[in-house]
Specification:
The chain is of the alpha+beta class and 417 residues long. Helices cover 38% and strands 12% of the residues.
Length: 417
């Protein structure tokens, strides 16, 4: 039955002349570099949330040893998160054609019999199954989260985080087993077929290939062209100058509206359930809690405090970002001083008027509070914040993920969290 060409367990079932060790090896080396960068930038994205600071920031509370690398996220350079998360999302989308081509190239291995010829072969098969399943899971969940916006409410973070570790563990095991062979194949790719390890002897090349309709070089150009197309229609979501080219990105295209507040947002005031009545000048008060008690300030009183400016972007976990916007308001460290934290600003817990959606609360580390560019912003680009940008006041912190720049701030608590 194994040799019945009608069954996928037979090498003769798979007749594409494109399959072979050289084709698969080249795709594998591209993924070796690309997936490693994806994994590292993904870990950095998780660290940027400062999950060890407060339970409200931690969406994977049972991570255990998987959080061994976590560190206090810095505020310098101010574009750090914009860069790392932009690379993570754009590269992930760009690699989709390469991943699909790689999976297609090794499909015969998934059906090969016997299941294991040796311990090394068994380990390779297990790593391959985990690699295929984990890769598809990570790329699919990532794309869905980027394209559909909060499609995994309350669950995307742990799914993607734990899935990434499973996928990368299988990836490393597979790379250790196969990289030497892949590099050897590529070193000999300019030699004649008979001078290198004959592909007819491997378990990917069909013993009875069909007539070719495209060369392997043409297939690689097709895969590369697909990746280039996805890159060109995605990368612009992180640049105002190129945003109109980001046709496949949710925050591509024209900016929303005109004027100083006309830059990208994720959650509108309507989506967040903000009642305009509670943000009016007569009603809204900011409550600040700290060592010496509680202070309540109106927006007019906040405007009377020393005002400072900072040019900072908004950068989202979904990969999109804005250019630097000109924010103006009260420094967080000055607000800390109002409630008894003059010399050494502590951690900060921020609560929003937001009623719907994730991150209604957020915690900031002391180093973020102490940065002179960290503001409770009242205006942006010379104009009062619009309702969608967080009127009457919002947090803006250098290098922080967008969801930690809390909008519609109602209460700030300085001290141990």
């Amino acid at each position: 039955m194994r040799d019945d060409p009608r069954l996928p367990t037979s090498p003769g079932f798979w007749r594409s002349p494109l399959r072979g060790t050289w084709f698969t090896s080249l795709l594998g080396v591209v993924l070796l570099v690309g997936v490693t960068v994806l994994f590292v930038t993904g870990l950095l994205s998780y660290a940027a949330y400062n999950p060890g600071l407060s339970p409200v920031n931690d969406k994977t509370p049972d991570k255990g040893l998987l959080g061994f690398y976590l560190f206090a996220w810095p505020t310098h350079p101010h574009w750090l998160y914009r860069l790392t998360q932009g690379v993570h999302v754009t590269l992930g989308i760009t690699l989709i054609p390469v991943l699909l081509a790689k999976l297609w190239s090794v499909v015969p291995k998934l059906f090969a019999l016997p299941p294991a010829r040796s311990l090394a072969h068994a380990l390779e098969r297990i790593s391959l199954l985990l690699l295929v399943g984990g890769g598809l899971f990570e790329f699919v969940t990532g794309v869905l989260n980027v394209q559909l916006d909060y499609v995994f409410p309350g669950s995307f973070y742990p799914l993607h985080f734990y899935g990434a570790w499973v996928f990368f563990a299988a990836f490393v095991a597979h790379a250790v087993l196969k990289t030497p062979l892949a590099l050897r194949n590529l070193r000999h790719m300019r030699q004649t077929r008979d001078e290198r390890h004959p592909e007819a002897d491997d378990d990917l090349t069909s013993p009875r290939p069909a007539d070719p309709t495209v060369s392997r070089r043409g297939a690689l150009w097709f895969v590369g062209g697909g990746s280039l197309l996805l890159f060109a229609t995605t990368v612009g979501q992180g640049s105002d100058a190129l945003r109109r080219t980001a046709l496949l990105a949710p925050h591509g295209g024209a900016e929303p509206g005109e004027g100083p507040n006309a830059f990208q947002i994720n959650k509108t005031a309507a989506y967040a359930g903000i009642d305009p009545a509670e943000t009016s000048a007569d009603v809204w008060r900011l409550e600040i809690v700290g060592r010496t008690g509680t202070v309540r300030l109106s927006r007019a009183q906040l405007a009377e405090l020393p005002q400072h400016s900072a040019a900072l972007p908004i950068a989202c976990v979904e990969g999109w970002s804005t250019s630097d916007q000109w924010w103006r308001g009260v420094r967080l460290c000055d607000l800390a001083a109002l409630v008894g934290h003059e010399d050494d600003p502590p951690d900060l817990f921020v609560e929003s008027l937001q009623r719907r959606g994730a991150f209604r609360h957020a915690a900031l580390r002391a180093n973020q509070v102490a940065d002179p560019r960290s503001l409770l912003a009242l205006t942006v680009n010379g104009e009062d914040l619009s309702p969608d940008h967080g009127h009457p006041a919002r947090i803006i912190v250098p290098a922080a993920p967008g969801v930690l720049n809390t909008k519609w701030v109602a209460r700030m608590t300085f001290g141990d969290l």
